[in-house]
Structure formats: C-alpha cells, structure tokens
Specification:
Helix 7 crosses helix 10. Helices cover about 45% and strands about 10% of the residues. The radius of gyration is 20 Å and the shape is elongated. The protein has about 230 residues and is of the alpha/beta class. It has two domains: about 5-140, 3-Layer(aba) Sandwich (Rossmann fold); about 155-210, Winged helix-like DNA-binding domain superfamily/Winged helix DNA-binding domain (Arc Repressor Mutant, subunit A), CATH 1.10.10. It is built from ten helices and five strands. The chain has a five-stranded parallel sheet with strand order 2-1-3-4-5, with helices on both faces.
Length: about 230
C-alpha cells in the first residue's frame, strides 16, 4: 500500500530502459493512476539520462539489462550520486544482477508483469526512502545466502553450454575435448553443487543453477522483448 507520508506529494520519475514502447506505456499508466507522479525523462542508458540535463528526479526506474552492457551496480551508484532513489523495474529473473543492484543501494524490485498500481505504490514508497518489500525482493535476498559453486573456467564453460540445451557431444565439440571429458566436467559440477546443498540432478536443475550464479542470462518474460 502507498505510505501515508507520500500521499499528495509530487514525485518526479525518470526511467532507464531500452524498450521505448515499454517506456511510453509506463508513462501513460502511471500518470493515469496518480497525476502527482510526474514522469519526465526516459532514456536507453544511464549515460543518456545523466547527460540529458533533465531532472532532478526523486525516483529512477532502472532495468537490470541494458543494451550498452553496463553493470547494475555501477548504474545504481551513478543514479544515486545524482540524487535519485532507484527502483529496479525489470522483466528478468536474474538474481545475481538483482543482488548487485540492491548492494549498490536500490530500494526495491518490481517485475514488468506486475500491475501499474503495484508499480505506482512502489514508486511512492521508494520516494520516501523506504524499501519496497515484495516476494521478488525476498527471493533475491534468499538467493544471496546461497554460495556460488567454485567452478573452474572449463567447468563454467561446460555448464554454460550444457545449460543452453546443447547435448554433451556438442558441448565437447565446442570445447575441443572428448565427450568423456565433457561428461566428467558435468559430474564434477553436479558434485560441487550437491556439496553446497544446491543439488543439480537434472539438466533443468543445472540450468537453474547457471542462472542463479550468473553463468547464463535469465529468460525473458512472456510478452516482452529481449535486449
């Protein structure tokens, strides 16, 4: 719910997202829900936002994955240094990137498939300097307690390829090793995850571990466009 101290206060909002159609929709829906949410500048990168000369902003909506390849940690630090609070607004399920953003000072995470009313409430909450408590935030914080597996470079590459749904024979060919060697890498990978209490018995389990540890990109939510 919207906090009482934020009701009636004009909040200046900007967004960093490289999908212009998404940004147009955000502006229209937020303004319709709450006219005191003044949606100003939208930009595809933090560089573009900060160089635009607009602002100041109270809250910046920030996508985790931008086309310029910038890191969430760096983006949050720069936006906060410019005087705005950060609300992550993303379509992905990338816990590693979410942890980066939160560790840099972002105050919450809202997924793009949530309602505009939920987003408006979150913007109001973040504008007061409070954290948006949500199931998504809880999931990211819970994942932070899971230690990543100490995989070698070759094991990481094996997991990356295998998680992208390549059979072990194709993984071996890509890595210029025998299929037996590729299978041995997979055996070691599973053993390391099992030792951490993060079992990966199936190929789907391995895919989830690869996403959790930032080895492969998370899936794009239905109805959205990839970068």
């Amino acid at each position: 719910m919207v906090r009482l101290e934020s009701v009636g206060r004009v909040v200046h909002v900007a967004a960093v997202d490289d999908h212009p159609v998404m940004l147009t929709g955000i502006r229209t829906e937020l303004t319709a829900i709450d006219p005191d949410l003044h949606f100003g500048r939208t930009a595809p990168t933090v560089d573009d936002l900060l160089l635009s000369g607009g602002g100041p902003y109270d809250v910046v909506l920030l996508d985790l994955r931008l086309g310029d390849g910038s890191r969430p940690f760096d983006n949050v630090i720069r936006v906060r240094a410019a005087g705005a609070e950060v609300l992550v607004f993303t379509d992905g399920l990338d816990n590693a990137a979410g942890r980066e953003a939160l560790s840099a000072g972002a105050l919450g995470i809202v997924l793009k498939d949530q309602s505009a009313a939920t987003l408006a409430d979150a913007v109001r909450t973040v504008a007061t300097g409070n954290t948006v408590v949500s199931a998504r935030l809880a999931a990211v914080l819970e994942s932070a307690a899971m230690p990543p597996a100490a995989l070698s470079d070759r094991e990481r590459e094996t997991l990356r390829l295998y998680a992208l749904d390549l059979p072990s024979k194709s993984v071996a060919r890509r890595m210029n090793v025998t299929e037996g060697t590729a299978k041995e890498y997979l055996k070691r990978i599973r053993a390391k995850y099992a030792a951490l209490g993060r079992p990966a018995c199936t190929k789907l389990d391995l895919y989830h571990r690869a996403v959790e540890d930032g080895i492969v990109e998370p899936p794009v939510a239905p109805g959205t466009c990839g970068t």
